[in-house]
Protein 1
Amino acid sequence: MKSMQNVKIIGTGSYIPKKVLTNEDLEKMVDTNHEWIITRTGIAERHIAEDNEATSDVASKAALKALKDANIKPEEIDLIIVATNSPDMAFPATACLVQKNIKAINAATFDLQAGCTGSVYALVTAWQYIATGFYGNALIIGAETLSKLVDWTDRNTCILFGDGAGAAVLKANKEKGILSGCLKGDGSNDDLIMLPAGLSRNPASHETVEKKMHYVKMKGNEVFKLAVKHMKRTTVETLGKCNLSVEDVDCFIPHQANIRIISALTRVLKIKEDKVFVNLEKYGNTSAASVMIALDEAVKEGKIKNGDIVVLTSFGAGLTYGSIVLKWVK
């Protein structure tokens, strides 16, 4: 058996749709207002995909940027993982469509569905494939067009979500860039965030359409408590695996779901505010794309420097939770 290889991120990229939907725009659509939304969520605006813009489209654009940043050609990619909760269709996988779009003709492809934790799950999965020597590199993408699955008459959910994609290229390397990871699940809370209809449990019918079962449903208060508890748990556990503590973290990137969740999490972890990267105000909750978009922005803005310890942590439907610790050695 081959010894485990070191793995690091060698390139990142992101794509945000051009169309902007502000809180003031939402005031004209549902019974809400800017002050209520910004106070409850921290979101001022979100970007919305065009009608003819699917998840594979935004994913492909982010992927090409990450490949350019990594200085690697599409045909050199061994594996593509797309983390998404809003695939183009049930099958084929969105990753196959991305492969076609970017002409990554030699890559294996699959989708990964782990709620908003999808990108963290994808990073850990790709890391294992490369560390064991099964593949030499991988392209992972978190991508969503959840605006197409949101009930725009439900003010509890429609104010939250935005569209976009973030991507990263991982490769075996002499330097150790990925230090540790932790993935958890809790299926007993499956009903807290869900899209009830459209597949085998509740196939599409007149009844499911009339009951608006093809839209995202969420029990926000219950999710809040569990999100803070379990993201704290996975963050501490992941840091402990590589003999680090919260004090060692230079950049903390939590899932961009709600500013109150982020504030509560950083408070219980006792992380200094200037170490926490937040772009929630501009994009809203981009679900599986969230931490990947934030990672790319943090790098491009110089918030992450060579040698920095970076933590990504997320939670999502399932419920799922996860964290990953990086040493930034790009």
Protein 2
Amino acid sequence: MMINTDRKILNSKEIFQKALKEKYAIGAFNISNLELIQAIVEASEEMQSPLILQVSQKAKEYIGNNYLYKLVEGALFSSTIPIVLHLDHGESFDTCKECIDMGFTSVMIDGSKYDFEKNIELTKQVVDYAHNFGVSVEGELGKLSGVEDDISIENIDAIYTDPDKVKEFIERTGCDSLAVAIGTSHGAYKFKNEPKLDLKRLKKIKDLVGQDYPIVLHGASSVLSDLVKLNNDFGGKIEDALGVPEDILIEAIKLGVTKINVDTDLRLAFSGAVRQYLSQNKSEFDPRKYLSAGRNSVKELVKRKIKIFGSENKA
């Protein structure tokens, strides 16, 4: 089954070129249910921002392919902005192939757990298949793992993206964009003390690949303190969570980051609003009420992200 709509889903190359030229980033927001996709699309439409809707393998399994088809169709019919449908962290050729065959316009193949040659081999296999269908491919070089303050210099060199290997990786695989490891990690606990990214490494990578090549930043949620506090004030227990400060994201965009992934912040916004609503309305048990609270919170968060990324009025 293919996603069926009169509106075309774009591949990422079609929206990256403008972003590269005008030096802004596009938010790639993870979806896993109806309310998230409604909030993200409505916010992007109101802000007139191009949008990357991305689905992880686990989220895809959670939603189910048939429901996912219809959610995406609904998003397209309800909006006018450019939308890319992207697979986040595909772990195998078969997973990427399945998504390409069902109508995704962009896929990420994550071969970062393999050695350099195996990563190239796997990424090129996906690229060769995807490009036959006009689908963009994002690769990854380097690993997003650990908390930066616990990593020795030797280990940093082992897991961070090696700038001297980037150009070879891109040339040999043909991938259309590249996720790099410069100190971010997934989840809410990215750092133990002072949040920092290796922006010098990012600059070197960008200088080597050229200003017209898209670089992707994963694990880039800011883990906003007000969202953490909202969760904790209404029954949560999220302690010592630190994300990537918004001013550092702005610096990364200036250095050439074109796509920024956001997932954890969406979860914090949604769960915090739901916790608050249920706590303050103890007799309420209508899911539409508390899920609406979560949706509204995510919508405001996405608007904030779009302003930071600089993609407002770029649709």
Protein 3
Amino acid sequence: MEARMNYLVVVDMQNDFINGVLGTEEAKHIVVDVLKKIQSFEGTIIYTRDTHTKDYLKTREGKNLPVPHCIKGSHGWELAPVIETLRKSDTLTFDKPSFGSMELGHFLEQENLKHPIQSIEFVGLCTDICVISNAIIAKAAAPEAEIIINSSCCAGTTPNGHETALQAMNNCQITIR
């Protein structure tokens, strides 16, 4: 397998989702495993950041989840420090204003047209919101690539939400590891 045909997408490993306003114990527990996965991955690594503006509470998401989080430029928006230390200045990072990143999807689609992608692996937060959204977008962008969810490197908003999302992705022919 050529390393450049494999991608790792690190989804929203941001302070607000780990130990901030939307943090969970499950999110805290995956940080070390995500760190190890990034360090050992052979291929292209991509990061996403949930990114909101100060008017978040006026958005549809803000009305449904009235907890300001990941406000661009804030400490909560930043990647966890141990994850940020691994992100190189030229590493692709997609700031996404919604659960899924269309920009990530377009990028993967273009890369797949140049050279067929063999695999796209996902780690990060939250399994039942942003991980599932981006995995489905990746499946559409590169339908012949193996889309992989590294379940031990993901956490949901709740343990039940995590499991439900894994089952839904499995039903969509996404590999769960």
